[in-house]
Write a structure and sequence with these properties.
- By secondary structure, this protein is mainly beta.
- It has two domains: about 100 residues, Porin, CATH 2.40.160; about 90 residues.
- The protein contains one helix and 17 strands.
- Strands 1, 2, 3, 4, 5, 6, 7, 8 and 9 form a nine-stranded antiparallel beta sheet that branches. A four-stranded antiparallel beta sheet has the order 10-11-12-13, with no helix packed on it. It has a four-stranded antiparallel beta sheet with strand order 14-15-16-17, with no helix packed on it.
- This is Lipoprotein.
- Keywords: Signal.
- It comes from Pseudomonas wadenswilerensis.
Length: about 230
């Protein structure tokens, strides 16, 4: 391929990347009487995400849905990917930092309904984070004992480290050093979790720009260790 062709290809890839740029918003508030944290990721006209009860910190997936700006509905999914409840927000695009985002949670099994009230605490936009100094973007993947966050407050969207957070205490117990160029955030799904040979692994997947990184849990040492 000649130089012009390479330039056109690069421009096309850049345009595609920018056209599908994801933005994340983190909210804190309540579902009924329970304190929760909600993370919504927007890509073009679609939104999806997860939330967790602050007592347990186990992410609960929310199905991808079209955003119409006036009202947002997303299905809560169980571990098998089946819908179990619907979360409906009445003012999803208002500035939730100045006034709460309101809505309802409705169980499909018995139609039980609970109120939602959440306030915006952080926005992770392209090459910027609000408010300044916001530490980390929560991830949708977790293990039985740990959940994960990625610091994105500097160097745009590059993933430098992964924070391992204890579900029981909410405290950081380990920071995993990625140490690779070209590994950029894939939003709330940057971190993957898998079981390999009976061992729990946490990883960034390999792609065209990132060589990928795998960390494996060592029970004897009580920590994750890099495999590559």
């Amino acid at each position: 391929m000649n130089t012009l062709g390479k330039c056109l290809l690069a421009a096309g890839l850049l345009g595609l990347s920018l056209g599908t740029q994801a933005y994340q918003s983190v909210y804190q508030g309540s579902l009924g009487k329970q304190a929760i944290t909600l993370v919504i990721e927007k890509t073009n006209d679609y939104k999806h995400g997860f939330y967790f009860y602050d007592r347990y910190r186990t992410p609960i997936r929310l199905k991808r849905s079209v955003n119409n700006g006036r009202q947002l509905s997303m299905d809560e999914l169980d571990s098998s990917g089946l819908p179990t409840a619907r979360l409906r927000f009445y003012n999803p695009d208002d500035n939730g930092a100045s006034k709460p985002m309101l809505g309802t949670w409705t169980a499909y099994a018995n139609a039980r309904q609970l109120p939602l009230e959440l306030r915006l605490v952080a926005d992770f936009g392209h090459q910027q984070v609000w408010p300044a100094g916001t530490p980390s973007l929560p991830q949708a993947a977790s293990t039985e004992r740990f959940y994960f966050q990625i610091p994105l407050a500097d160097d745009h969207d590059r993933v430098k480290t992964i924070e391992v957070m204890d579900k029981a205490s909410g405290k950081r117990v380990q920071t995993l050093d990625v140490g690779l160029p070209g590994c950029y955030s894939q939003g709330i799904d940057s971190v993957k979790v898998r079981l390999e040979g009976g061992s729990t692994q946490v990883l960034l997947e390999t792609n065209s720009y990132c060589l990928g990184k795998v960390f494996e849990w060592r029970e004897a040492k009580g920590q994750f260790e890099a495999l590559n």
